[in-house]
Amino acid sequence: DPSIRAEAVAYVVDCLQFAAAVGAPVVQMLPSGESRLAPLSSREQEWQWSVAGMRTAAREAERLGVRIAIEPLNRYEAYLVTNTPSALIYLRDVGSPLVGMTLDLFHANIEEPDIAAAIHAAGSRLWHVHVADSNRRGLGRGHLDLPPIAAALLDIGYTGAVVLEIVPPEGTAGLDRDVRESVAALRTALSPRSR
Q1: Is the CATH code 3.40.630.30 the one for domain 2-194?
Q2: Which residues of 158-184 are buried (b: 16+ CB within 10 A; e: fewer)?
Q3: Is the overall model pTM greater than 0.85, yes or no?
Q4: Measured between alpha carbons, how far is 133 from 120 in angstroms, rounded to an integer?
Q5: Which of 26, 128, 145, 162 is 20 to 30 A from 190, comparing alpha carbons?
Q6: What confidence tens digit (pLDDT) does each residue in 179-191 have?
């Protein structure tokens, strides 16, 4: 529906304007609807619509000096952009220097055969990182291999935000513990001395 697509682009433009007003350097967004696992028309058509909408948003981002980071979601939550290779093709098709990507380690654990290689492939287009273990819990509570991931971030000279996005199964009762342990694990792994 063209009117829904126009509303989505207008919303992104509003977010970009808000980010510029408060000094936020990056707006993170999804290139397609979350929880849609198949196209309503065709994948190619929806790719074209998404790229066209992102180009419109990118023009506003360029005017405002705010970057957009698209986030690939795993195949159980989205279908259009699910991994780093598809994100890089999407970025190429959008063609804006102000559109890059977010890497969410929870989703990458499902979709990337080698997360460190995905980080190297993204390189300077990686602008935002979400951190959780393989089960969405705090670091050290799943099977995510953090040292090579942290080494890859250091290798590419990553300077963007590293954001905890953890969901402990016991709710807020375990959240403080998971945050403390995750921050400690990140500090150790991202320390240049740990290499």
Answers
A1: no
A2: bebeeeeebebeeeeebeeebeebbee
A3: yes
A4: 20
A5: 26
A6: 999 999 999 999 8
